[in-house]
Design a protein that fits this description.
Layout (H helix, E strand, L loop, with lengths): L1 H17 L18 E7 L4 E9 L4 E6 L2 E4 L6 E6 L2 E6 L2 E5 L6 E5 L2 E4 L18 H7 L12 E4 L2 E6 L2 E4 L3 H7 L4 H11 L6 H11 L1
Antiparallel strand pairs: 1-2, 1-5, 2-3, 3-4, 5-6, 6-7, 7-8, 8-11, 9-10, 11-12
Helix pairs in contact: 3-4
Length: 214
């Protein structure tokens, strides 16, 4: 009987793990992509540059690999768009947002990660010190730019979502944020959210409701 239950549990775990979307991999790394891949940097001047790129969600920088050295793109004010694996990123100050929908009012993803250093309180009853993000020390040591932090560190994804309309950004955390922005469709949005059991911390659900609202 125990063997049967173990087999069922193994099959269930395998099925659920394989069903996870590709975007879940961001939770295992401080980078959006599992490796550096060739991407395109389009300048506002129209100039196009190719480079091995990845987005660091810990430092919130667009990183390029130059002969093994990890460097952040600077002069972001001159950059129009960065393209990586059919995904699009646009600068907002010194950071980049991912464009999730090509709609008049677009859903934007702010990839963020908080690092919990050794000796920090993780919220599970440990007798450790305060949980803080010591990014400065990690950057100084070069660890913040590696694909994987040392095992003693823990990562906590803090992804944020925004709606961009006419170059203005609106934080999206709940249903009312959509209803306020699309006030003429508030009733329809309320019905759609309820019928589709939309969760406002789920990227795929937010894409659905953004497309519907537009």
């Amino acid at each position: 009987m125990k063997q049967v239950l173990s087999t069922i549990l193994l099959l269930w775990l395998t099925s659920n793990l394989s069903a996870q979307p590709e975007m879940r991999r961001v939770e295992l790394s401080n980078y959006v992509f599992p490796d550096f891949v060739e991407g395109t940097v389009k300048q506002k001047s129209g100039e196009i540059n190719k480079a091995l790129l990845n987005y660091n969600s810990l430092t919130e920088e667009m990183i390029f690999d130059q002969a093994g050295q990890k460097l952040a793109l600077d002069k972001t004010g001159n950059i129009d768009t960065v393209y990586i694996l059919n995904r699009k990123f646009i600068p907002f100050g010194n950071i980049f947002y991912e464009v999730a929908t090509n709609t008049p009012t677009a859903l934007m993803i702010q990839h963020k990660t908080e690092v919990i250093p050794p000796g920090s309180n993780t919220g599970f009853g440990t007798s450790q010190t305060a949980a803080i993000s010591n990014i400065t020390d990690l950057k100084r040591a070069g660890s913040a730019y590696k694909l994987k932090l040392p095992d003693e560190y823990q990562l906590a994804p803090k992804t944020a979502f925004w709606l961009k309309r006419n170059n203005n950004y609106y934080a999206i955390k709940r249903e009312k944020d959509f209803e306020d922005l699309f006030s003429d469709k508030a009733d329809e949005i309320k019905k759609y959210v309820k019928a589709n059991k939309i969760k406002f911390n789920n990227m795929n659900d937010l894409i659905k409701v953004t497309l519907y609202s537009n």
